[in-house]
């Protein structure tokens, strides 16, 4: 073998790892553990592109490094395999989503294995596998069987709550619950029917069923969670989303709000993700108080963060959906109010919140009494007040709140100043003269005395809607008896997905499960027809890897106590308010019930940046049909005889080409497949071969034009057809996707791995730019040559290593270790390159040095390192060969370069051995002609030599 043969070598070692289960995590509880996890992928039909493995490679390097350091490493991979794309494909084709999912997973596994990841494949999990979702359903059952105790601030079993009710009714219970639960005594409880009891319990359960306003997406036929809706459209597909009231399963995550907030403090997570969670949870400290309505029994409750401005309240505003609206609206105002309500209903919450300028509202005709001044103030409705936040009503202070002010100005309502420019309260009776803080305290004391209000903390985060009207998700293990939900017994789990004839909702709008012929229990009770959301399985999967095949528990207690939680989690920050919040919630819940010993799932997290694609655009004449987006896209219908002309970019001036749409009247940009472009030049003959619809098209260049694959010169030989390159998201529709399989085929997996790391810091966004990949491939060849002579013979010898080689090696060991510990992988790659260059220059063929070198490069480029490791005469995998010990003695400098100054002015640099005697330095410095020149003939007053620092001569 003269050159390094990556193909055989990579296959050989991948097979070796698999056969020998080298990366199997052991259940050896005496060894220190390290758990590194990638956010598991949804197996999409498109397979992996080079952007996907970026984070996986980083965590793989850490996993291999930790293994070499002696840790028992858990580094698994699995699939988040329930989800919408497989279902939509099923709707279109009739193919069962399980089949597509399986195919896609197989393709992913093949691709992942080609990259040589050190996964413990035995622990692979799939959320759509009944043996997995049995436990998702089991956790749902626990959530259904639990309530949140606000005294001890933890979840508890529902039986404990029932015991309270039996003893004292619900008066003394402090629990997170639905609003408006009537008080009942122990005796009442005793007398309630079974159904009445269940209805009450439902209002306390952590997984509960209630009528909720949801984001309904008619095009997808399902409800979406808040984080799946962006600007009033579904995140997937971009379909319009409306607000609709429906019976829905929800999760009482709001009960955990404060713990989710406080828990962030101890997590080693990127600050932006923590900040997003904080904002999402949205803690507000304020007060809640009631305004009595004039001539009516009801009161209007409001939540305010500025009770100090109470004397500035000149009117009130209710959300259009507020339940009192209908009741209090006077007959004269009825028509106007109803008209307004029906318009407001269809505006998305986000629009309502952000469009401060678009003021709208209606007067209800009703008045309320100001609780401090006893004055009558008008009650309005306006859609800037949201139904789901606080109490759905505000006390409006137009002097200090922008939205209230805009409303008051628009409708000509009174404005009273109550805070002056020094932030002191004015015009406010007994609050006048106080600071904002003091006024708040005093006002709250006053309200407490009068029993009209109290201090209150509000959270913006709502309970999470848990029902999806879809097929491809976990069935909810619930049946209905007299409309009351009951759990299936544990031994009836998993409740498997039924077969259906179509994956669509039924004609009367019921979810697809309603199509199943007998979706009932054995006793004939109807089963729940909605399925769980995408986030159910991913909220607990990190525990399943600890014990992936357990049929008796979701995870064995002892195993969980050993593995604890994830030490390093790598994935995208786009999950900040979805998966990363829900999995924290479920972990805290399981912790409360004693099923896990940790209350946070992911101790440290890193968000990898995105690898962007470089798209190539061509200037082409506009189509008469106007439906052309992509050059060379075979699916596009072209009009007969439509002939296009293309123009090389360098024909036009910069101004003409500016922006997305060129200023040239007849031209537009179309994407070209990046495979036909090299260094910004289109391979015209091959491009038209692939896309015959452009066979007759003319491709103008500076010097002439191309037609039918021939260049016709009109002016000169300038025949390059230039494209416009642009960095964009990697995507099929932009024809800029790079497949890792192709890179591996050409350069090998080790090169791919090294190159992805070399591209830049892990967290950064960076374009996939193949220009540098040759350099990485060359580096590996150079590494190989270090071990071989020119004839390809292995030339490493066992001998005493030389000092310079040891120094180069230990500098690299120190840096590699520091870099991995700090997740700076790109800098290590350059370190390896420098080290290999130095050792090549030194003609180092020393076994000790090269063995250590291999061990530090192995996590990055494992295949070549395995091969060299075995050539060095070692048994087994290099991943079991330990990590070299850094020895600081070897990198001690032996010389120092001194700046030499005369009278404090720097004149030259001189290098001396560290142990050079002072006299020798003095002599050499004074003999230096550059120094002599500045001394001239003056006598030396003093000569200062600070060892390892400076030399200064005073004359
Ligand atoms: C009087 C006031 C005066 C207010 C002032 C603010 C400034 P955060 O901090 O986000 O919790 N508010 C309460 N419920 C609302 C709802 N359902 N829809 C829209 N706005 C609502 O905001 C709390 C403040 O937002 C509350 O304090 C209330 O207006 C308003 F100078 O009350 B404030």
TrEMBL record:
A motif ('KMSKS' region) lies at residues 729-733. The lineage of its organism: Bacteria, Pseudomonadati, Bacteroidota, Cytophagia, Cytophagales. It is found in: Cytoplasm. PANTHER family: LEUCINE--TRNA LIGASE, MITOCHONDRIAL, LEUCYL-TRNA SYNTHETASE. The gene is leuS. Residues 278-425 form the Leucyl-tRNA synthetase editing domain. Keywords: Aminoacyl-tRNA synthetase, ATP-binding, Cytoplasm, Ligase, Nucleotide-binding, Protein biosynthesis. InterPro entries: aa-tRNA-synth_I_CS, aa-tRNA-synth_Ia, Leu-tRNA-ligase, Leu_tRNA-synth_edit, M/V/L/I-tRNA-synth_anticd-bd, Rossmann-like_a/b/a_fold, tRNAsynth_Ia_anticodon-bd, Val/Leu/Ile-tRNA-synth_edit. HAMAP family: Leu_tRNA_synth_B. Gene3D superfamilies: HUPs (3.40.50.620), Isoleucyl-tRNA Synthetase, Domain 1 (1.10.730.10). GO terms for cellular component: cytosol. Its EC number is 6.1.1.4. This is Leucine--tRNA ligase. PROSITE patterns: AA_TRNA_LIGASE_I. GO terms for molecular function: aminoacyl-tRNA deacylase activity; ATP binding; leucine-tRNA ligase activity. It catalyses: tRNA(Leu) + L-leucine + ATP = L-leucyl-tRNA(Leu) + AMP + diphosphate.
């Amino acid at each position: 073998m003269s050159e390094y043969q990556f193909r055989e070598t990579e296959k050989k070692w991948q097979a070796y790892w698999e056969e020998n289960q080298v990366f199997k995590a052991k259940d050896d509880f005496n060894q220190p553990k390290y758990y590194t996890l990638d956010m598991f992928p949804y197996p999409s039909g498109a397979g992996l592109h080079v952007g996907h493995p970026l984070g996986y490679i980083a965590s793989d390097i850490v996993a291999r490094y930790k293994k070499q350091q002696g840790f028992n490493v858990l580094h698994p991979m699995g699939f988040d395999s329930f989800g919408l794309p497989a279902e939509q494909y099923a709707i279109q084709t009739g193919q069962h989503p399980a089949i597509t999912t399986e195919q896609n997973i197989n393709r992913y596994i093949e691709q992942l294995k080609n990259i040589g990841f050190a996964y413990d494949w035995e622990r692979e999990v799939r959320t759509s596998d009944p043996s997995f979702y049995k436990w998702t359903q089991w956790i749902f059952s626990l959530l259904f069987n639990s309530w949140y105790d606000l005294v001890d601030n933890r979840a508890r079993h529902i039986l404990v709550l029932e015991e309270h009710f039996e003893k004292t009714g619900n008066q003394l219970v402090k629990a997170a619950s639905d609003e408006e639960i009537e008080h009942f005594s122990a005796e009442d409880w005793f007398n309630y029917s079974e159904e009445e009891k269940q209805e009450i319990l439902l209002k306390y359960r952590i997984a509960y069923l209630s009528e909720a306003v949801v984001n309904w997406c008619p095009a997808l036929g399902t409800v979406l969670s808040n984080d799946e809706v962006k600007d009033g459209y579904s995140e997937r597909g971009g379909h319009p989303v409306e607000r609709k009231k429906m019976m829905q399963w929800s999760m009482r995550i709001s009960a955990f709000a404060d713990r989710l907030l406080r828990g962030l403090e101890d997590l080693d997570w990127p600050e932006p993700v923590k900040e997003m969670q904080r904002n999402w949870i949205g803690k507000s400290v304020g007060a809640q108080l009631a305004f009595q309505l004039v001539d009516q029994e009801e009161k209007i409750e409001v939540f305010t963060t500025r009770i100090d401005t109470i004397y500035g309240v000149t009117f009130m505003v209710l959300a259009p959906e507020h339940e009192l609206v209908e009741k209090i609206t006077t007959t004269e105002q009825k028509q106007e109010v109803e008209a307004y309500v029906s318009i407001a209903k269809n505006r998305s919450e986000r629009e309502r919140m952000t469009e401060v300028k678009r003021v709208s509202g209606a007067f209800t005709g009703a008045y309320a009494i100001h609780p401090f001044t006893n004055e009558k103030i008008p009650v309005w409705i306006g859609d800037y007040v949201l139904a789901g936040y606080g109490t759905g009503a505000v006390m409006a202070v137009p002097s200090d709140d922008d939205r209230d002010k805009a409303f008051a100005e628009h409708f000509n309502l009174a404005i009273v100043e109550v805070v002056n420019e020094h932030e002191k309260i004015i015009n406010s009776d007994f609050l006048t003269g106080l600071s904002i803080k003091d006024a708040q305290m005093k006002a709250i004391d006053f309200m407490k005395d009068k029993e009209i209000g109290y201090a209150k903390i509000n959270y913006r985060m709502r309970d999470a809607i848990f029902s999806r009207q879809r097929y491809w998700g976990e069935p909810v293990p619930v049946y209905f008896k007299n409309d009351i939900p009951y759990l299936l017994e544990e031994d009836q789990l998993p409740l498997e997905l039924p077969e259906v004839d179509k994956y669509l909702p039924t004609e009367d709008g019921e979810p697809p499960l309603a199509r199943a012929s007998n979706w009932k229990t054995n006793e004939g009770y109807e089963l729940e027809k909605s399925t769980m959301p995408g986030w159910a399985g991913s909220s607990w999967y990190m525990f399943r890897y600890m014990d992936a095949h357990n049929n008796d528990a979701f995870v064995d207690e002892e195993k969980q106590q050993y593995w604890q939680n994830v030490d390093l989690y790598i994935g995208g920050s786009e999950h900040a308010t979805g998966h990363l919040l829900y999995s924290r919630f479920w972990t805290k819940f399981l912790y409360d019930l004693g099923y896990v010993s940790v209350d946070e799932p992911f101790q440290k997290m890193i968000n990898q940046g995105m690898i962007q694609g470089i798209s190539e655009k061509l200037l082409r004449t506009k189509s008469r049909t106007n439906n052309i987006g992509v050059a060379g896209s075979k699916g596009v219908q072209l009009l007969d005889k439509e002939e296009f002309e293309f123009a090389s970019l360098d024909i036009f001036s910069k101004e003409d080409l500016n922006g997305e749409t060129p200023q040239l009247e007849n031209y537009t940009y179309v994407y070209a497949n990046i495979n036909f472009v090299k260094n910004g030049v289109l391979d015209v003959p091959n491009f038209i071969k692939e896309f015959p619809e452009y066979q007759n098209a003319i491709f103008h260049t500076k010097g002439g034009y191309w037609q039918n694959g021939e260049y016709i010169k009109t002016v000169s030989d300038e025949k390059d057809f230039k494209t416009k390159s642009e960095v964009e998201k990697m995507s099929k529709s932009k024809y800029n996707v790079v497949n890792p399989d192709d890179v591996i085929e050409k350069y090998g997996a080790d090169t791919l791995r090294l190159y992805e790391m070399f591209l830049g810091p892990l967290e950064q966004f960076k374009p996939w730019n193949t220009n540098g990949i040759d350099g990485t491939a060359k580096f590996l060849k150079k590494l190989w040559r270090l071990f071989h002579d020119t004839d390809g013979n292995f030339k490493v010898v066992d001998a005493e290593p030389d000092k310079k080689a040891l120094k180069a090696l230990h500098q690299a060991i120190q840096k590699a270790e520091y870099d991995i510990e700090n997740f700076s992988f790109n800098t290590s790659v350059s370190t390896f390159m420098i080290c290999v260059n130095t050792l090549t220059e030194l003609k180092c063929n020393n076994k000790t040095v090269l063995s250590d070198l291999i061990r530090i490069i192995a996590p990055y480029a494992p295949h070549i390192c395995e091969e060299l490791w075995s050539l060095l005469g070692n048994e087994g995998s290099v991943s079991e060969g330990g990590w070299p010990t850094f020895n600081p003695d070897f990198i001690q400098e032996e010389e120092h370069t001194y700046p030499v100054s005369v009278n404090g002015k720097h004149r030259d640099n001189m290098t001396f051995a560290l142990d050079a005697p002072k006299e020798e330095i003095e002599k050499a410095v004074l003999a230096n002609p550059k120094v002599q020149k500045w001394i001239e003939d003056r006598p030396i007053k003093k000569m200062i030599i600070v060892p390892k620092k400076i030399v200064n001569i005073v004359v």
